[in-house]
Specification:
The chain has helices at 5-13, 23-32, 112-121, 123-149, 152-167, 184-191, 195-207, 223-233; strands at 35-38, 43-45, 53-68, 71-78, 82-84, 98-111, 169-170, 176-178, 211-214, 217-220. β3 (53-68) and β4 (71-78) form a beta hairpin. 43% of the residues lie in helices and 25% in strands.
């Protein structure tokens, strides 16, 4: 069932870059930019797309990734209430990314003209968009550099920390559970490694006491140890991509 206009406005008001907009402007945005339903595996954009659009994820989960030397490198996981697609509004090379739905999703899509319309009515929104562009560019470039230079255990540790930020749930015994079931093969496609290398990396991280795997779910047992591994301390662990 589609959300009511009141529910739409409430959800949009919680999106960072839309906070400056009034209730009337948010209603206008909801009418002007209808929702789009995305199936699992469907792409919102791929490299070479000429459309300049900004998306707000209302429901679901989207993965942002690039392909480097034949391997997929995950740059970020987009969760509900998050803006993405901002790189298409710039001339930056990171527009060469894919955005793929990881589960059934609902998105609001704004074209450049829509964005300029609302920024002209509320310039503070433009400042927030500029800040978002700067932060995302730095985040994605740092992550791409980390994933291409580090060994597999460090890349896996970085990815698990990223996943925990978006979907992690604190358990009664103070561990962080990643509720989605990710196979080793799937994780491998997200860090540019094969399944065997991921399995070895998991073994290393478990030996360090950083993670546990129970009933096919990943638990972060020691985030400090995982952060240490993500910083590259696992470089001595040889795991061939």
């Amino acid at each position: 069932m589609s959300p009511s206009l009141e529910e739409e406005v409430k959800m949009l008001s919680m999106v960072d870059i839309l906070e400056p907009l009034s209730e009337e402007e948010l209603e206008e945005l909801a009418h002007r930019c209808p929702d789009r339903r995305i199936d699992v595996g469907e792409f919102l954009y791929t490299p070479g797309d000429s459309n300049e659009r900004l998306f707000v994820l209302k429901r679901g989960k989207v993965r942002i990734y690039r392909v480097a030397e034949g391997s997929e490198i995950t740059l970020g996981m987009v969760d509900e209430g998050t803006v993405f697609g901002e790189m298409a509004l710039t001339g930056q090379h990171l527009r060469e990314a894919h955005a793929q739905a990881m589960e059934p999703s609902l998105v609001l899509s704004m074209g450049r003209a829509d964005l300029e319309h609302f920024i002209s009515k509320n310039p503070k929104m433009g400042m927030l968009v500029a800040q978002l562009l700067s932060e995302r560019l730095r985040l994605y470039e740092n992550r791409l550099e980390d994933l291409t230079l580090k060994q597999v255990p460090a890349r896996l540790a970085s990815l698990l920390l990223l996943l925990s930020e978006g979907e992690g749930v604190m358990t009664a015994d103070k561990q962080i559970k990643i509720p989605t079931h990710y196979t080793h093969e799937r994780l491998g496609t997200m860090i540019g490694a094969n399944r065997v290398a991921v399995t070895r990396a998991f073994g290393y991280l478990q030996d360090q006491g950083a993670v546990e795997v129970l009933r096919r779910r990943i638990y972060l047992a020691d985030t400090g140890a995982l952060e240490h591994a993500a910083d590259g301390a696992a470089a001595e662990q040889q795991a061939t991509p």
